[in-house]
Amino acid sequence: MEAEIIHVEVQPEDPNHWTIRKFLTESDINGSSRLLIGRNKVLRHIAPFFTENPSEFCQNNERIYAIVYDVDTHTGHTLTLAKWKTNSFVLINNWSQQFVKRRLLKVNDEVGLRWDAYNARLEFTVLRRHAARG
User: pTM, whole model, 2 decimals?
Assistant: First the structure.
């Protein structure tokens, strides 16, 4: 029996599949070593994979240790998703080293995040690089 070869045309990544989009700020790339993610975005796009009541997500200083998979470089990195007292969420523990420095991220670069339920990981991509003026 011969196997039939099927041609599959690979489509470019659909940017609409990135449920959390963010333009990086100075505090996301400086020595703070954290990526600030808006509360509503986390509660809408990540928390439902962990709890039936998203408002209870990461209460009492709970932290989520997650693999953050860089789809551009096909590498996985262990980071922590934590909730601040301000109710904002941050990715910490190796953010600066594993993403800012390694990917040469700059202010106004746009990044995307999404929860991959199949692989139980957070996925990351650089959607757009900010063109430096000068």
Answer: 0.82
